[in-house]
Amino acid sequence: MADYDETTYGEGIADLYDQFYPSAEPAQIDRLAELAGDGRALELAIGSGRVALPLQARGVDVRGIDASRAMVARLRDKPGGADIPVTMGNFADVAVEGQFDLIYIVFNTFFALRAQEEQIRCFGNVAAHLKPEGCFVIEAFVPDLSRFDRGQRVSVIGLDEDRVRLEASMHDPVRQLVRSKHILLTETGIRFFPVQLRYAWPSELDLMARLAGLTLAERWGGWEQEPFTAQSGRHVSLYKHSNASQ
Ligand SMILES: C[S@@+](CC[C@H](N)C(=O)[O-])C[C@H]1O[C@@H](n2cnc3c(N)ncnc32)[C@H](O)[C@@H]1O
Fold first, then answer.
1. How confident is the model over 135-162, as pLDDT tens digits?
2. What mean pLDDT is predicted for residues 15-24?
3. What's the fold here for domain 8-143+200-241?
4. Quick check: 18 and 51 in contact, CB under 8 A?
5. CATH number corresponding to 145-197
6. Distance, CA of 138 to chain centre
7. Quick one: which atom of ligand 1 is closest to the CA of 10?
8. What is the pLDDT of residues 186-196, one digit of tens each?
9. Which of 4, 61, 66, 120 has the greatest CB tally within 10 Å of its CB?
10. Is the CB of 9 inside a 6 Å radius of any atom of ligand 1?
11. Are 171 and 151 in contact (CB under 8 A)?
12. pTM
């Protein structure tokens, strides 16, 4: 995995991504549409448009950033996909013009930035592109280190009539880095999909936000605005400029 970079995940999985992860939760689209209002929205790591396309269909002015040409090609092939402006590059740079009412990153993808410094840099660049009353939304899992036994884990993540999907992972608790291969087994062969994530607890994300001049405004346990509790497996966190009116 020596050559893993920001393009690796998307380039590897693009042809099967929409089969593995078909559609966005309706409540996710509802909340993001409410937060965008009549304004401009930016999705970090837009991928094949699983979230951006239904948001666009709701009338939201949405654009995106992604590093993988293969993932963006999937977006372009879908109805409406050619109309969404996409900037190619590392989303940590937020290398786009202008400011936004909503910037969001879902499906744990903030953790695709594999070093704390890169995650801090991303927060800083997001803050610079957020309008004064704008909102930055992160959806991510709450780390659960009990998943790992002596630094490793092998598990079944999908089982169909004609295929099995496994995940083999190594955990480095010092770097908070999980290096995985998703393994697809079919009668015709085996495919590997590399994934690397640098996880962070919600409290670390809040601290990174503060470094960028952002403050946690709300945290839900899911898109239905469930309360976030010690049992929550994921969180939806909303950050605003620290000096924004509450
Ligand atoms: C799990 S997919 C999520 C796509 C979409 N947001 C969704 O919810 O379906 C992760 C996406 O992040 C992109 N990605 C990963 N690291 C990136 C980086 N550092 N900069 C830009 N894109 C990145 C991949 O190319 C891929 O399209």
1. 999 999 999 999 999 999 999 999 999 9
2. 92
3. Rossmann fold (3.40.50)
4. no
5. 2.20.25.570
6. 7
7. 25
8. 999 999 999 99
9. 66
10. yes
11. yes
12. 0.97
User: 244: pLDDT confidence band, cut at 50, 70 and 90?
Assistant: confident
Cα 8 to ligand 1 centroid, rounded to whole Å: 10
Q: Which residues pair with 100 in a beta bridge?
A: 130
What is the predicted pLDDT for the residue at 60?
Answer: 98
Q: What angle do CA 233, 234, 237 make, to 5 degrees?
A: 150
Phi, psi of 241 (to 5 degrees): -55, 140
Burial class of residue 187 (count of CB atoms within 10 Å of its CB; 0-12, 13-18, 19+): exposed
Q: What are phi and psi of 214, to 5 degrees?
A: -115, 155
CA 9 to centroid of ligand 1, rounded, Å: 8
**C-alpha separations of 209 from 43, 142, 159, 243 in Å:** 18, 17, 39, 13
Residue 1 binned pLDDT confidence (cut-offs 50, 70, 90): very low
For 218, the token pair is 């709300």
32 close to 137: Cβ distance less than 8 angstroms: yes
Q: With 70 as the cut, is the pLDDT of residue 124 above it?
A: yes
* CA 113 to chain centroid: 10
Dist. CA 246 → ligand 1 center (Å): 31
| Domain residue ranges of the chain, discontinuous segments joined by + | 8-143+200-241, 145-197
159: tokens are: 């089982």
Average model confidence (pLDDT) across the chain: 96
Is the alpha carbon torsion for 138, 33, 126, 67 positive or negative? Answer: positive
Which run of H or of E encompasses 236? strand 234-241
Which pair of structure tokens corresponds to residue 234?
Answer: 């994921």
